[in-house]
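stage 2 :: seqdesign
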């Protein structure tokens, strides 16, 4: 959104240049008494050609600006979609890790098989020690 607002003054300036170029192209050079008619015609043609080229260049620049803004918006959309997907994947992995850790702690504290505890002749672990064992 900031990108679009950042380009707005550029677009307005471009439109103003297009309007002034058209107005300048409509004005014709008036011949003076000392110049030949062929020079005046060539000058008028050069001014008209230059004004038309200016207008065409401004139009192309405005179109390129619009395409750039659209391309940037698409890139932002893709980035947001990738971020959402990565976040969901991270949440799934975190939930699975939490489930695995809870299962491991439950087994160590009082599960069915592979339990370390009093019935196997070992000292029972505290909750803090169980968490430290999972971290290793």
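stage 2 :: out
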């Amino acid at each position: 959104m900031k990108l679009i607002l950042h380009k707005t003054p550029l677009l307005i300036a471009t439109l103003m240049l297009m309007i002034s170029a058209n107005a300048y192209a409509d004005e014709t050079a008036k011949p003076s008494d000392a110049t030949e008619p062929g020079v005046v015609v060539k000058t008028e043609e050069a001014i008209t050609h230059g004004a038309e080229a200016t207008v065409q260049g401004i139009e192309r620049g405005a179109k390129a600006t619009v395409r750039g803004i659209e391309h940037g918006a698409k890139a932002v959309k893709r980035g947001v979609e990738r971020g959402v997907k990565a976040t969901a994947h991270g949440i799934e992995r975190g939930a699975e890790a939490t489930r695995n850790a809870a299962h491991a702690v439950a087994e160590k504290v009082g599960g069915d098989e592979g339990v370390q505890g009093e019935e196997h002749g070992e000292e029972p672990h505290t909750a803090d020690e169980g968490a430290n064992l999972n971290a290793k």
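stage 3 :: structure notes
- Helices lie at 2-26, 37-110, 127-135.
- Confidence is low (pLDDT under 50) at residues 114-121.
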